[in-house]
Amino acid sequence: MKQALSIEVFIDFICPWCLIGQRNLQVALEQLRLEQPDVEVTLHWQGVQLLPDMARTGQPFEAFYRKRLGSDEAVRQRQAQVRAAAEAVGVNIDFSRICRMPNTGDAHRLLQRAVALGQPQRAEQLLAQLFAAYFQHGKDLGDPITLLKIARSCDLEPGQVADCLRGDASPFMSSNHRASAGVPFFRFNQLLEVSGAQPAEVLFDVMLEALAVDQVALA
């Protein structure tokens, strides 16, 4: 009898740790497929808007982080830490290209729509393109035109997603997520939870634990 593993992943596109966490999850899933190929995995991507009060046009990126961290030196140190963590898992982050801290409400609505259309591979492609657009190319994820271009690159038609791109800074209301948990946040089979960009081996071990717990429950 095949086992099922449901994984909910809560993310925001402006969080570099979510990008790193996504990569670590991919590595853990590759290991699971090698060691337990009969397990049927279902991924559920859930958006969490970290800055729901962000202005429609966003804020200057450097000024935002200078205010948050207190100084230019603190910003440099934090970015160096994040770049090193990203490079360690084969992910490129180019902070020099990011001009604005965007309002991500529409980006979350876009991903939610891609998921609702019932095409998991397309939703995964969209997620990857949104991360790449922001962290590698410095695109403004609060701009509806930019989001529409990204959607079309993933074979999503304007008629399927146009109503998601409101451009009015209306907050994205996420569900089934504790605000205190932060992102990235992982929930396995509705049983076990992990917070933060944990290493792939940690995520893999939690997957095995969730499967073991589920197997005991079915026995």
Walk me through this protein's architecture.
With 219 residues, this protein is of the alpha+beta class. The chain contains eight helices and six strands, in the order E-H-E-E-H-H-E-H-H-H-H-E-E-H. A four-stranded mixed sheet has the order 2-1-5-6. A two-stranded antiparallel sheet has the order 3-4. The N and C termini lie close together (12 Å).
In short:
With about 220 residues, this protein is of the alpha+beta class. Helix content is about 50%, strand content about 15%.
Write the layout of secondary structure elements.
Layout: E1 4-11, H1 16-35, E2 40-47, E3 59-60, H2 61-69, H3 72-88, E4 100-101, H4 105-116, H5 120-135, H6 144-153, H7 158-161, E5 185-188, E6 192-195, H8 200-218
Parallel strand pairs: 1-2
Antiparallel strand pairs: 1-5, 3-4, 5-6
Helix pairs in contact: 1-8, 4-5, 5-6
Strand order in the largest sheet = 2-1-5-6
The count of β-strands is: 6
Strand content: 5-15%
Number of helices: 8
3D shape: globular
Helix content: 40-55%
The overall pLDDT average reads: 93
Radius of gyration: 18 Å
* Largest sheet composition: 4 strands, mixed
The assigned structural class equals alpha+beta
Low-confidence stretches: none
